[in-house]
Every structure is written in C-alpha cells, then in structure tokens.
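Entry 14. Structure prediction run on the chain below.
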Amino acid sequence: MSRAVARHDEEQVDYGETILSVEGLTKHFSQGSGLLSSIFPKPKVKAVDDVSFDIKKGETLGLVGESGCGKSTLARTVLRLLEPTDGAVYFKGENLAELSGEAVRNHRKDMQMIFQDPQSSLDPRMKVGPIVEEPMKAHGLYEGEREERARELLEKVGLDPHHYNRYPHQFSGGQRQRVNLARALAVNPDFIVCDEPTSALDASIQAQVLNTMRDLQREFGLTYLFISHDLSVIRHISDRVAVMYLGQLVELAETDELFENPQHPYTDALLQSIPVPDPRAEGRRGVLEGDVPSPIDPPSGCRFRTRCPKLIVPAEYDLTDAEWANVRRFVRAVDRRTFEASTGRAIRAEFFADAEPRGDAAAVVDESIEAILEDDWDRAAALLTESFAENSVCAEEKPAYHVEPEYGRGEHFAACHLHRTKRAD
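Output returned:
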C-alpha cells in the first residue's frame, strides 16, 4: 500500500478495547423558537433518552428499530453534529460532550459518517475526485498528494480510478454510495457511523456494498455503528446488535444471541416480522397492536408497555393468563372504541366468554362496562388504564436487566420486567 493510503498510528486504541463509550446520552428538541416559545414553552420532544452502550475497536454494532425511534438522532448526537441535552460520549477516553469549537473539529477526522441517500449527500456540481479530497482539505491533510490518495481510495472501494473526473449523476446508486465510502475514508477515521447506507439500493447491490465495507473494515481496522431497519442486513454485518424503541435501547446482545434468543417482546416482534421467502411457510407474524406513543409524552416505566403483548399483571390482582389476556384486549378496545356498546351481556360475551376476571379486577371491569353503557367512554378508559395498565410494574419502574446468554459469552441486556428476578447490580 502506498504512503497515501497508509494509516496513522498515533492515538490508536488496541483491537478489542473500547473506542467509544456512550453514557446516559439524551437529546431533547424544543417545539418552537422565538419570543413566544420562550414565554409559553411547549413540552420538549424526547428523541433520545438516557442511552448507554460501548463499542470496541474493530467491531460493528448494529442499531435497529422502527422509523422515528431515534436511531439517526442518536448517531448525529454521538458525532456532535447535534448538541447533546445530557450525558457523555467518550471517544478514545475523551468526553466529546464537553468539547467545543476547534477541539470538536480535531476529532472529526477520526469520526466520519456515511449518509442514507447516496444522491443528496454528494454535491452534483463537483466531480467525485474533488468530493473525496474535500475532507483532506478541510483538515489540512495530505498536501500535494490528495489526488493520488483520492484515486487510490476510489480503487479501494471498487471504482475505477479513471472515474476521478466524473460527476455524481454519471454513477449508479451503488457506485455513488461507494464514493461516499471513499470520502469517509479520506481522513483515515477510526470510527464510521453508517446511517442506513444500503436502504436506497437494490438487494444485489446492497450485498456488494456490504462486502466492500467488511473488507475495508478488516484492512483499515475500522469500527462501525451501522444503522438499519433491515434485520437481514444487520445480521449480515454486525458483531453485536442494539434494538431501539421510542428513544431508548430495549435490548443489546451479540448478533447470534439476539436473533436466536430474543429477551424483549419488541425484539421478538421485530424478528417475527421478517418475511420468509417461502409461500408455503405458515406461522404467526409479529404484528404489534396500536401506534407508537408520542415522544413528547412517552409512557412511564417501560416505553413499550402500551403495545406489549406480555404486559405484567398488577400484583394486587389474582388473574390467570387467559383472564389477563382478555382484560388487556378489553382495555385496548375501550381506549380505541373499536366495538359497539349494546348491552353488558354482549360486551362480556365478546371479550370474556372463555375467561372472566374475578374479585377486584371483576369490579373494575363491571364499573367500566356501566360507564360505556352510559356513553362515558372517557371515564371507562381512564378507569381501566389507571387500574390495570398504570398499576403494572411495567409502568412504575424503568426496566434494566442483564440476562444469561445462551449463545456466546457476551453481555445480554434486556429492558423488560419479565427478567425482574435477575436484576443487574
């Protein structure tokens, strides 16, 4: 390899040691700006809330979750493209959250990003050679050898060096993403955030780009934070996987452990939703009930509890699994008004035919049915939510547990109270 592509050795972290440590990272957004918003402030959007994880040198941490869960906001906050509201981001032992100005800029050459859209992230007025050289100029690196380095990097990512003078529109989507990859490598970074870099590409091109990224990772000792909503891509490229829901991590484990032994109901639902390429295959699909709550006012305790099929029954009620399942179904139906209120007998037949609650739980259900028959749905919904949903340990405490892994020896974190008997220290 020529001098132009050789890596620098200063401030290097040994392979397998922690290169990035995120502790309690939080990012909240204001809903307005100007004088009126300062006089009449609105609640903030809690895009990322108290997220912690480590990434080791040379590994790929996959970050997966539904659209809007805060993955990209988390990545941009880690890189200090967004100012954190709270928490710390330690890169090579230095807290980036405490740095500003030139100190942050000096770290940018070690931390790069590949964006989701390969078209909009490239300047259409610039040729790809100067695009790749731009980070070198910004950091004052490789004076006098930038063109040579740019050509070699284009070759490293699978492009013809003679395409140096072409414009982005003359490349395919996969080729443009390779240009983005070459640009990210231009300043010899140690850590690259990949924000859904293959989501806009065809499946065959995805595989080519992913294989190129893995080859470059081995050659240059790169560390990736790889964001995607495609679980098959995450499984292909990741060493460990973090699952995110409504601004918080709900599970984190080694790839095989998470895919074969999911310990959070949300992760389980995501895995069940993966399409099976066999029209004869039968089985349940992971279809979640309800909508994702607003990040302005997220649920207390476990944020997934409003959609969780395994919500824990409040301790004060003695209910069987069948009775509790019927109660939860009734609570959801009342909250969304998905049935016609005719008579109390008809309501009980629709929701509690096979298992009707007893004792105090039955009294709550009876009172809510009476409210529904009086056309007071709001009172019924409030009563059911307060008595059942808000009374569960899932609503009262934020979960954080460490589970014994079945595959491998890595740590397995699961934010679910189903593991409350194995609470981490």
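The first strand starts at residue 18 and ends at 29.
Filed with the rest of this week's runs.
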